[in-house]
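Hi P.,

Sorry for the delay on this. The queue was packed all week, but I finally got your sequence through. Input first:
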Amino acid sequence: MFLLLACVRTAYVGDSTDNTGPLDSAADSATDSAETCPLAVPAAQTLTAPVAGEPSFPFALPSSSWALATAHAARQVEASGSRPLPASYWLALGMERTLLSCGEYGDPWSSASTSQGCMELYQDIHWVQLDRLHPDWFVYAEFADQISPAEDDDKAVAGVHAAAWQLTAILPVVEHDDLGGWIDAADDVAWYELAAIVHVHTPWSHYVPDALACPDDPGGCSGAPDAEDIGALAAELHASTTEACYDEPLTAADIEAYVAALEVLWPTLDWESTRDALPAAGTFQDTAPAVLDAIDTHAGVRLHCPGPELSSFYGVDCL
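Then the structure:
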């Protein structure tokens, strides 16, 4: 059943270089109006934008882990000080690149598991950058255990977070070259297209300067494969959250599965205190914000710009 609500993005404020301490509570920063959904995750719908070349795609999240992971990534990116990328962007990226091929979800999703996982992360492209820029959070030698082979939801959760941390860490390389300053001024579709180009082709691809030179149509002007499709799909999914948000039941087992997946990715964090602070089961919109608050506060998960490492390896600063 859909919950028909007008959605707003919840803002979080924090030091983008500090990886300690909690994020501001979703309850503190959401509006008091009952006519909002705290987490703008899209509900089931038939899409207009083609998915992997297929029109009229029947979209529905394959599991609650996808709802939690993409909402969590969106919240973490915004808290880092980077321009926001909503849950719909991370869903669009996984859908266009692999049709979410990291779980036996059934039709319409792909069951062709790949060694790069749902978000198509490569060890020598994405993971090596994570290892350089976030050495306390990601280890190059652990890529195979955490992403490949992608068989189930814990790999999906790890993939979404790794994609968000890697893109946010490396974006200052692109922003340093954005002399016209259009990244902050561009419309959402253009921003999604540029983010997709950086993820798929790296900041050093020849597509990036072509995209930066064409703020009205970075995907089209650059000719970067998939960029326009990802941008259009992310925009349609996110626009739909003004009318219908994902609000399926979130069970105790769903919550534990998500926390357990993060524990696989970051085993040294304080998961005992996190579990003690988790809320009871409920609907997604009522319960998920408190789940993410517990994780960010007690486990201390905080995506941040890695200033010293970014300067050392790539000669640019956090912006």
